[in-house]
Amino acid sequence: MEGQQDYDLLVIGGGSGGLACAKEAAQLGKKVAVVDYVEPSPRGTRWGLGGTCVNVGCIPKKLMHQAALLGGMIQDAPHYGWKVPQQVPHDWRKMAEAVQNHVKSLNWGHRVQLQDRKVKYFNIKGSFVNEHMVCGVTKGGKETLLSAEHIVIATGGRPRYPTDIEGALEHGITSDDIFWLKESPGKTLVVGASYVALECAGFLTGLGLDTTVMIRSIPLRGFDQQMSSLVTEHMASHGTQFLRGCTPSRVKKLPDGQLRVTWKDLASGREDMGTFNTILWAIGRVPETRSLNLEKAGVNTNPNSHKILVDAREATSVPHIYAIGDVAEGRPELTPTAIMAGRLLAKRLCGQSSDLMDYDNVPTTVFTPLEYGCVGLSEEEAVTRHGEEHVEVYHAYYKPLEFTVAERDSSQCYLKMVCLREPPQLVLGLHFLGPNAGEVTQGFALGIKCGASYAQVMQTVGIHPTCAEEVCKLRISKRSGLDPTVTGC
Q1: Is position 464 annotated as part of the catalytic site?
Q2: Whole-model pTM above 0.85?
Q3: Strands 321-323 and 285-287
Q4: Mind listing the pLDDT tens digit for each residue in 251-274?
């Protein structure tokens, strides 16, 4: 398109990555607009500005995880001398209202920040007209045409519903709905083995709800499988039920409102059924690309995943159109990576920097009841990449001090450091299962990002008494065959 553009930068999508990119570019002097529109979920759930993380992801998830952890602490309290009533009920409505109010305050905060940075915000659904122009449609059907020199696609993804299961869409919910339920979901079947599935099942169990997870194959695909097994082992020992090697085939609503689910055991071929109050589908996510009319702009996608193909500069097949976050092919589906990628892209577009986003050694944490934090390579990836004979794994089973007086089981509190075998033994990956795993992993992630060696970690003085100090005391290798259980304080 020839002639003057309306904006220097137009961002499609008001989630973590899009907002970070827009605010950074505006601060650096660019004329910026953001278009964002949330299509209600099939169950009618809707929310405000901020994307998945703020509204139906990390933020409400962590708060409900915290609610469940407090339930565990109440059980610990009598061991520490607190006189606690025998029955301490949980009020879902009260928790949900508090969580939802916090999310709404964040929505408002994002609106204010855009205003402060002079970013124009349009609550419209955008799609391409050509490579420089986007058409936005309001809820009422009114159209607005916007043109820009550069366009960033940051539309993220939404939960996937199964298309081949009778009653799945009519009677099921997803993570788009669970955090906005006014009433307790009651007895719940969570279908899926992703971190979303396990995190939701974990806090539902922790809040005292009868919860079952149905897994077709393996839990936490893409994560270290030894750690994944310990995560599910801990959940099973604390009340979450698992149906392994099963797939649902039908969902039927009974006259009393309950949902009868029929499933198949893949090993035996036998059918079984059970009744639940709620079914939560957590079987993956799909990118929000289909309604963008990308073909009109010439933007290429992966035909299988429907994600947008990008290069190291986040550029698509059209040089002035970029894609960041979950919508881009091959990128980790994590809020902080989208934010950093967005900011770095804005700086490059404004000529302030040439730095590219580095997607290696990105730390993350799965907020299951016993948290799992990791950074770098899994043991499987390290062996595949370097060969078993070139990899050394140091590991330990440990007992958090807080668990001792409370007489809590610490069987799954475990950590391992995956290193190159040759001195000084570069650290390839760190995996930590235990309380506050996110806090522990974040600290060590800096060292690993800076190329820390096993020798340097062993020279680091631990903070006593903490769980994190166990990383600095990893002396036993798997290869040695010695018992890795920590004794003493």
Answers
A1: yes
A2: yes
A3: unpaired
A4: 999 999 999 999 999 999 999 999
